[in-house]
Amino acid sequence: MKDNVYIEWKNVPILLNIKEVAILFNCSEKTVKRRLENGDLKGSKITGKWMVSKEYLMNLVA
After folding, report:
1. Euclidean distance between CA atoms 16 and 52, whole angstroms
2. What is the rounded distance in angstroms from the CA atom of residue 4 to the CA atom of residue 62?
3. What is the pTM assigned to this prediction?
């Protein structure tokens, strides 16, 4: 599967999984998961998988 590269926020999905957040921030999936688990990043588990909102990430980098 080809990894998505997001050029503009309008192309980013409303909810991102760990892999998508890792691609967006150019870091490992392990780092994203660790930061979600220790509270450095805010996310929610939906059907057992971590999801992070686009709105939260946009505010984080603003």
Report:
1. 5
2. 22
3. 0.86
Q: Which residue has the tokens 């688990």?
A: 37
Contact between 57 and 24 under an 8 Å Cβ cutoff? The reply is: yes
Q: What is the pLDDT of residues 30-39, one digit of tens each?
A: 999 999 999 9
Compute, in degrees rounded to 10, the torsion defined by CA atoms 59, 37, 47, 6. Answer: 40
Q: Between β-strands 44-46 and 15-17, what pairing exists: parallel, antiparallel or unpaired?
A: unpaired
Strand ranges for 1-62 from DSSP E: 15-17, 44-46, 49-53
| Assigned token pair, 61 | 């980098």
